[in-house]
Amino acid sequence: MKCGKVDAQIALLRHKLRLIYKGQVFNGKPTKTARSHGKKIHVSVRQETSRILGNLGWAYMQKSNFMTAEVIYKKAQMIDPDATKANNLAVCLIKQARYTEACLVLQQVLNGEIPGSNDIRARNMAQGLLMEMETLLPTPEFLPGLSGLDLDDDFVNGLETLMNVWAPSRSKRLPIFEEIENFRDQVTC
């Protein structure tokens, strides 16, 4: 997609999805003939829907709207999974600092659990994303003295109790509303 044309691409892709939803594609046929790398192939409505969703997810990634892109990629994977969309889903999760989920998706690609995982480019991309994630995660040497610290429920609950003793819970309203409430009784009609 060209720079500055992302919004137009999103509108076009959403329009195409609406046409598919209404059943107005492929002239009522279950497949269409298309060309890929010079060869004629048959594309099903399911495959076309997944392809368009993948492109829409990519467009939202270009706008740094990773939550929307994530939802779209997950839907595309439900319809017709493939390794490229799985890698893009992992990028969305990484950008949201959801490393555990991203790692699970990438491991599916590397373990060959997703169609297209045998493609060397998809595998290299998954491996590269895993290596990139390793640089983003804090390592134990950056946390001296905290190795083996397990933040179990008792510890977290103890901290919460301690914080409530030291700083009793305050109103969740903005301070300005607290000030206004003090004058409420003084206002006359």
Write the layout of secondary structure elements.
Blueprint: H1 6-22, E1 31-36, E2 39-44, H2 45-62, H3 66-79, H4 83-95, H5 99-110, H6 120-136, H7 153-166, H8 175-184
Antiparallel strand pairs: 1-2
Helix pairs in contact: 1-2, 2-3, 3-4, 4-5, 4-6, 5-6
What is CATH's topology name of one domain? Serine Threonine Protein Phosphatase 5, Tetratricopeptide repeat
Distance between the terminal alpha carbons, to the nearest Å?
60 Å
CATH C-level name of one domain? Mainly Alpha
Strand order of the largest sheet: 1-2
CATH superfamily of one domain: Tetratricopeptide repeat domain
Beta-strand content estimate = 5-15%
Poorly predicted parts: 145-149
Q: H/E series, N to C? A: HEEHHHHHHH
CA-atom Rg in angstroms: 25 Å
Query: Helix coverage percent of residues?
Result: 55-70%
Count of helical stretches: 8
Class inferred from helices and paired strands: mainly alpha
Q: Give the total of beta strands.
A: 2
User: What is the 3D form?
Assistant: globular
Annotated CATH architecture of one domain: Alpha Horseshoe
Largest sheet: 2 strands, antiparallel
Mean pLDDT: 80
